[in-house]
Amino acid sequence: MADLGSDGFGNQIKGTAKEVAGKIRKNIGDATDNDSEELKGRAKELEGKAQRKVGEVQSDIDRNT
User: Fold this and answer.
1) Sign of the alpha-carbon torsion through 6, 8, 9, 10
2) Distances from the Cα of 57 to the Cαs of 25, 41, 44, in angstroms?
3) What is the per-residue DSSP string for the chain?
4) pTM for the complete prediction?
5) pLDDT tens across 33-58, in order?
6) Phi, psi of 6 (to 5 degrees)
7) Which candidate, 12, 15, 19, 16, places its Cα nearest to that of 62?
8) Alpha-carbon 46 to chain mean position
9) Average pLDDT over the chain, rounded to whole?
10) What is the pLDDT, as a whole number, of residue 4?
């Protein structure tokens, strides 16, 4: 589960890290023909993208308040 505190920049960093980890796991699963690992990697990558986007929105809100 994503840690979506109120720190926009922190969420951007954490989200990017999850995206990278997910891509690596997805690629390993693809290379080893392990569908389960590939799907887990895709899920982690999407979770990271979502968290990064939340962080971007939080930062935009912080700048505009």
Assistant:
1) positive
2) 27, 24, 20
3) -----S-HHHHHHHHHHHHHHHHHHHHHHHHTT-HHHHHHHHHHHHHHHHHHHHHHHHHHHHHT-
4) 0.84
5) 999 999 999 999 999 999 999 999 99
6) -90, 0
7) 12
8) 6
9) 92
10) 60
